[in-house]
Specification:
Elements: H1 2-22, H2 27-49, H3 53-80, H4 95-111, H5 122-136
Helix pairs in contact: 2-3, 2-4, 3-5
């Protein structure tokens, strides 16, 4: 009887560790997406508060610096999960985070209008160049 109890206990313990340790298949994708969402939301707030070209450039540079940290992780995940490149067949596990990402993307598009009056400012142009450089880096 003690042996059966030990085996049952060890089986349950193993199952608990596997469940906690493994999580879902795309837990790393969700984590990076959450970081991206926070970064974009911060960028939107910074742009909304910007009243001059210097503030806009500062917001762009801060966003670029954040993306510089996230881009390598995003590229690794893209290589690890090539099936995620197929946008026509989204993973059920990622549906919620994809919806959040799309929502924040739409908000970002609206906030980008704040850039228009400052597009020719040298500081803003430099910041945009920095962002493009970060986004194109492989």
């Amino acid at each position: 009887m003690k042996t059966i109890s030990k085996v049952l206990f060890l089986s349950v313990l193993t199952l608990i560790f596997l469940t906690i340790g493994c999580g879902d298949k795309y837990s790393d994708v969700k984590k990076v997406n959450e970081e991206y969402i926070v970064l974009v939301e911060s960028y939107i707030v910074s742009l909304d508060k910007a009243d001059n070209a210097k503030d806009v450039a500062k917001a762009i540079n801060k966003f670029a610096d954040g993306m510089q940290n996230l881009m390598p992780e995003m590229q690794k995940l893209s290589e690890k999960y090539p099936e995620l490149d197929d946008q026509s067949n989204p993973s059920e596990e990622l549906k919620e985070i994809q919806e959040k990402t799309q929502e924040v993307g739409q908000k970002m598009a609206g906030a980008m209008m704040k850039l228009m009056p400052y597009m020719t400012d040298p500081e803003v142009l430099n910041a945009q160049g920095h962002l493009v450089e970060v986004m194109q880096k492989k």
